[in-house]
Design goal:
This protein is an alpha/beta fold. The protein is built from eight helices and 13 strands. The strands form two sheets. An eight-stranded mixed beta sheet has the order 1-2-3-4-5-6-7-8.
Length: 306
């Protein structure tokens, strides 16, 4: 694991009132912070905070990365931001069209803060937002109150460059990867990448039915070409490119090669489920995802072979 990044927990003052939800904030670098989520699946206990909610403080205001899983979680993040700076939040960037990226937009909308997302993520939210909201409310119950579906106001087709004060911020798409509309936020001056779900290391990545593994490998290489000094992944603590490569790119290549061998030997789906993934068994969500990943990749590659 990468040991070269000094991470510090920010002291929040004053303290919470009336049992308000509080979040531990990690300072990644000057002006760059993240509330590191659990690396387990979303649950009532972790309030759906199983991804990273990051923010960048500039001289002209704050940019938040990820709306969060629900209204109250986004509200809690805003309280922590206010303990660090009096500057207003200017934008929220949704890293993709998953619930824990966009459902908290409903809170930010009440604050007059526009959300930004890549068009495929916006389309996913338009089509699937209500179903995603329903699943979150079933899990979070009263902890999901006030949450509604708020489609991002700014939906863009390609990379988007912003300047907040003297801080250039680039919202980049490297191509299809983990889920519709994946984007990363790049700080070129500090060479810090808030990567989103193109990058995993502490938990096993998920291959969804709409995940494009072949394109993810290409997108990863484009991302790696930036040579980021620090990567804040979608899940897990900040780390370096070598660590992310091991647990994302190398894992996908390994799984692809294993499935390809099964196809060449006229194997079937049951063989894919038995692929030895024990080298990654220490990662969180391994039990939930390893067999699903192998099965879904087999089905994708089998269809591609016809």
């Amino acid at each position: 694991m990468f040991l070269g990044v000094l991470l510090t927990a920010c002291q929040s003052s004053p303290g919470p009132k009336n049992n308000e939800l509080t979040l531990d904030i990690t300072q990644v670098a000057p002006g760059v912070y993240s509330a590191i989520g659990a690396t387990q699946p979303p649950s009532y206990e972790n309030r759906g905070h199983n991804n990273n909610l990051s923010f960048i403080v500039t001289s002209a205001g704050v940019l938040v990365v990820n709306g969060g899983d629900n209204y109250l979680l986004a509200e809690a993040l805003h309280r922590e931001i206010r303990r660090i700076t009096d500057l207003p939040v200017r934008f929220v960037v949704d890293e993709n069209g998953q619930g824990h990226a966009f459902l908290g937009n409903s809170y930010w909308a009440t604050q007059g803060v526009p959300a930004i997302a890549l068009e495929p993520a916006c389309e996913e939210i338009r089509k699937q937002g209500n179903a995603i909201l329903k699943r979150m409310l079933a899990r979070n119950r009263e902890r999901g109150e006030h949450t509604t579906v708020a489609v991002p106001e700014i939906c863009f087709e390609a990379s988007l460059h912003l300047n907040l004060g003297d801080t250039p911020i680039q919202i980049l798409t490297f191509g299809p990867a983990h889920s519709p509309g994946d984007v990363s936020v790049w700080l070129p001056q500090q060479k810090i990448l808030i990567a989103g779900d193109i990058a995993f290391h502490q938990r096993l990545l998920a291959i969804f039915p709409d995940t494009n593994v072949a394109e993810w490998l290409k997108s990863f290489q484009k991302m790696a070409a930036l040579q980021p000094r620090i990567i804040v992944p979608g899940h897990g603590v900040p780390t370096d490119l070598a660590t992310i490569r091991t647990y994302t790119y190398d894992y996908l290549v390994y799984l692809r090669d294993q499935v390809n061998q099964i196809l060449e030997e006229d194997g079937d789906l049951s063989d894919a489920y038995e692929i030895d993934q024990s080298a990654y068994s220490d990662l969180d969500t391994f039990q939930e995802l390893a067999r699903k990943n192998a099965g879904r990749l087999y089905q994708q590659m089998e269809m591609d072979s016809f």
